[in-house]
Design goal:
Layout: H1 14-27, H2 35-48, E1 52-56, H3 59-72, E2 81-85, H4 90-98, E3 102-106, H5 117-126, E4 131-135, H6 144-153, E5 157-161, E6 169-170, E7 173-174, E8 181-185, E9 198-202, H7 205-215, H8 225-234, H9 240-243, H10 258-268, H11 271-291, E10 303-305, E11 310-314, H12 318-330, E12 335-337, H13 347-352, H14 362-370, E13 371-375, H15 382-392
Helix pairs in contact: 1-10, 2-10, 3-4, 3-7, 11-15
């Protein structure tokens, strides 16, 4: 029996949010993408500290659109090698395969759950990367400032999957602001929920425009009028009538709805509180982990604000993992692997990539077999926190 699920509610202030949503739906003139989505984009970009924010129907769609937009712009080409964090989610890697890129897994440091600069430098020696899609895993992050410098020096497009680290801040800035672009997810179990939904943030205006085109079938309808004129002039589109069904580049239908925009605005008001409570909870759990010799303490010394996505539990051996996971299960705590584990071991990866990885994945292998996580969110009660804390004590 699950007493402490990964997430108890779809939203913070769930009852109030559902009532407000129902009222909005009844009164709304239309529910297809419109002014609420645009308002959410503007407010989220300000909150994140990014020039542009483009809303999508999911975080997975955001990943797909980002890689397609970079191909449309010629910044990525067929068969380019793109590195990615070995500890990641499937929809970070699948678009690479689907779009004809060559994915290379890069190892992660067990004490940070993330790729660190030394792992990236090692990978570059064996593989000429055109891009690196890093995953800021479970609210943690690597030394992104140094990784950014390495990518700049080697002319590598740095992309951030920040879906699990919304609000995490290093001493040098917020995660999601170190690369060319970053993706976010607003799925139910994330820091803020729009049921489904995702976002891309970037300071690059050309990329932002192309993402807007990619999101909506390859047409220009969601660009502002001045940009529409430029695109139409460039492609010799003679009149407004013809422009309605002119498709400028490869795209998809990845548009959100006004429901996504409305919920995003509602939950954005609560996100700072959400992050603060998660950080407070994690601090309590971390003190117990630090004292338990069976568990590997995680290094957050370079992190100013840890926006805890969940509580990672990294055991020192697979045998210990089984024992602690059994204890969590018996206590009614729902648990999951650390994201998708070492993605190199996933069936789809073996089928479509298959060949031996150019660099060893010792850290990702360790995390795959030794780690799991449970939920950490504001709705955890004092009793919930006590149960989880007891399970973290030495067996």
């Amino acid at each position: 029996m699950i007493l402490i699920p990964l997430m108890k509610n779809a939203f913070l202030n769930e009852d109030e949010t559902k009532k407000e949503l129902a009222d909005f739906i009844i009164k709304a003139d239309k529910l297809s993408m419109g002014k609420k989505c645009r308002e959410f984009e503007k407010k989220f970009s300000r909150w994140q500290g990014s020039k542009n924010a483009i809303l999508f129907n999911s975080g997975g769609s955001a990943n797909l659109a980002l890689l397609q937009a970079l191909k449309n712009l010629g910044r990525l080409r067929e068969a380019d090698i793109i590195g990615f964090s070995a500890l990641t989610w499937a929809t970070n890697v699948m678009p690479m395969i689907q779009l004809g890129l060559k994915p290379i897994a890069i190892d992660c440091e067990p004490t940070t759950l993330n790729v660190m600069s030394q792992q990236l430098e090692s990978a570059i020696k064996s593989s000429p990367l055109r891009a690196f899609f890093i995953t800021n895993a479970l609210g943690f992050a690597g030394d992104l400032d140094e990784i950014k410098n390495i990518c700049r020096k080697n002319i590598i497009n740095l992309l951030e999957d920040n879906c699990e680290a919304l609000g995490t801040e290093l001493t040098t800035g917020k995660t999601g602001n170190f690369g060319l672009a970053s993706t976010f997810s607003f799925f139910v179990a994330h820091h803020m929920s729009t049921i489904e939904g995702g976002m891309i943030c970037t300071n690059d205006d050309k990329l932002a425009d192309m993402l807007t085109v990619v999101r909506a079938n390859g047409w220009d309808r969601n660009l502002d009028q001045d940009k529409q004129k430029k695109w139409r002039k460039k492609h010799n589109i003679e009149d407004e009538f013809s422009s309605k069904y002119t498709f400028y580049d490869l795209g998809f239908n990845l548009r959100p709805t006004e429901i996504t925009g409305f919920l995003g605005l509602s939950q954005l008001k609560l996100v700072d509180h959400n992050i603060n409570v998660r950080a407070k909870n994690h601090s309590l759990f971390d003190k117990i982990i630090q004292k338990n010799p069976d568990l590997l303490p995680l290094d957050k010394s370079h992190i100013k604000t840890l926006s805890s996505f969940g509580l990672p539990v990294v055991c020192k051996t697979p045998t210990l993992k089984k024992r602690y996971l059994d204890r969590f299960t018996r206590a009614g705590i729902e648990s999951r692997p650390l994201i998708a584990g070492n993605i190199y071991k996933q069936p789809f990866y073996k089928k479509y990539v298959g060949k031996k990885n150019p660099v060893e994945l010792k850290g990702a292998h360790f995390l795959h077999y030794n780690g799991f996580y449970c939920g950490n969110y504001p709705e955890l009660t004092t009793r919930d926190i006590e149960i989880i804390s007891n399970c973290l004590n030495k067996i």
